[in-house]
Amino acid sequence: MHITMDVVFHEDSMYFSSESELQGEYHKEIQTLDYDYHISEEDESGQSELVNQETGELDMSGQQFGSEDVFTEIPNQSSSVEGVLSLEPDPFMKRLPHHHNKGCMVLEKQCQKVCKLKKSLYGLKQSLRAWFGRFTKSMRAFGYCQITGNDPKERKALQNYLSREFEMKNLGPLKYFLGIEVSRSSERIFLSQRKHVLDLLWETGMLGCQPVNTPIEEGLKLCVEPNQVSTDKGRYQRLVGRLMYLAHTRLDIVYALSVVSQYMHNPGEQHMNVVMHILRYLKNAPGNGILFTKNVDHQSIEVYTDADWAGAVDDRRSTSDYFTFVGGNLMTWTSKKQNVVTRSSVEAEFRGMTFGLCEALWLRLLLQDLGYLSRQPIRLFCDNKAGCDIAHNPVQHDRTKHVEVDRFFIKEKLDDKIVELPKIRSKD
């Protein structure tokens, strides 16, 4: 493992800069050799939205904190404190001479030796996982199990505890986190990524472009053409990646992104043109986002599903779409190509119903974790009558044997009164 740092030679000694921030070259770490696991907990799509929705619904206040020493709080394995997740195995680094600066003195003859890190560094792949473990154990030691609360004394006690455990800053009321802007009134909470959109338009030179009214042209079918004009693959992947993060607050570009993301490995000029079209659409209203309003029934869950049967030109797979509402507020949304080729529109719709129901069940469990046990059945809307009939009908049909698992999954939830299937027309 190699670590970059600032040093200066002076006579027979070498000085390491005490002010420079050591950064690990994480791309040189090898899994199973330098580390075992590096995957850490992340904010799933829908978690922060649901917390914000319940915060506004119950008139709670959002408080924001920042830690200045996130990764350097994590010790190595041999120097770890009991009950605190450490870096395993112990990380080592080579000394690499760079710029002139002042700092602690190390003899030049010791340059052939390696350094054993006492704590983590920014850039190590396992740092995020170890930090989450460190923070989780501290919170559990405090006895904190819920992530929301409206007791000022409890919030103050938590703030004092975190300040003792870490170098924490109180950033005041929640206004900006992870690139998402938060605006709040007594009745509403609004999330947007306006700055992210404007930065993206400025970096791509699209601030002065002519805006369009749709994120993708109606009826457009993309494919990999035999003699297609190539484009900058790295630039294409970066743009699509940044647009995907923008989809956290922009439902309107999700389908267009599901189309262009299928060609990350071999993009052509026609695919890049669609990405530019999305940017021109964003120029039309960069401040759009999600609005959460108060509702009487803030625990009701509704799911709307649909499918584009055999819509992909390259492999004729279908695309499933669903979006969920909790308490009348839009919560999660997805547009994703299905894993298998479906032989009928009924099968495509039925698989889409299964995906949407799984998402709704996850939201139901998340509400329970927040302390709200919803006893109302989930309302699952699908405009395909045959798909709803299959879900209700326990008789096995020859044409639906290949979707037996999905059929019994939905039927079980219907029998348990966890979900219901209201009728809805396609135009609604």
Topology:
Elements: E1 3-4, E2 7-10, E3 13-17, E4 23-24, H1 47-57, E5 63-67, E6 92-93, E7 103-107, E8 115-116, H2 127-142, H3 152-165, E9 168-173, E10 176-177, E11 180-184, E12 188-192, H4 194-203, H5 233-246, H6 254-260, H7 269-284, E13 289-293, E14 301-308, E15 319-326, E16 329-337, H8 345-369, E17 378-382, H9 385-392, H10 404-415, E18 419-420
Parallel strand pairs: 14-17, 17-18
Antiparallel strand pairs: 1-4, 2-3, 3-7, 5-9, 6-8, 10-11, 11-12, 12-13, 14-15, 15-16
Summarize it.
The protein is an alpha+beta fold. Helix content is 31%, strand content 19%. α8 packs across α9 (385-392) and α8 (345-369) crosses α10.
Strand content: 15-25%
Main sheet record: 5 strands, mixed
Q: What is the chain-wise order of helices and strands?
A: EEEEHEEEEHHEEEEHHHHEEEEHEHHE
- The separation of the N and C termini measures 58 Å
Q: Could you list the spans in which at least 5 consecutive residues all have pLDDT below 50? A: 1-35, 78-85, 98-105
Protein name: Retrovirus-related Pol polyprotein from transposon RE1
Pfam families: RVT_2 (PF07727)
Domain Reverse transcriptase Ty1/copia-type: 147-217
Organism: Vitis vinifera (Grape)
What can you tell me about this protein's structure?
There is one protein chain. It contains ten helices and 18 strands. It has 428 residues and is α+β, with helices and mostly antiparallel strands. It folds into three domains: 140 residues, no CATH class; 94 residues, no CATH class; 126 residues, Ribonuclease H-like superfamily/Ribonuclease H (Nucleotidyltransferase, domain 5). Strand 10 and strand 11 form a beta hairpin. Helix 8 crosses helix 9.
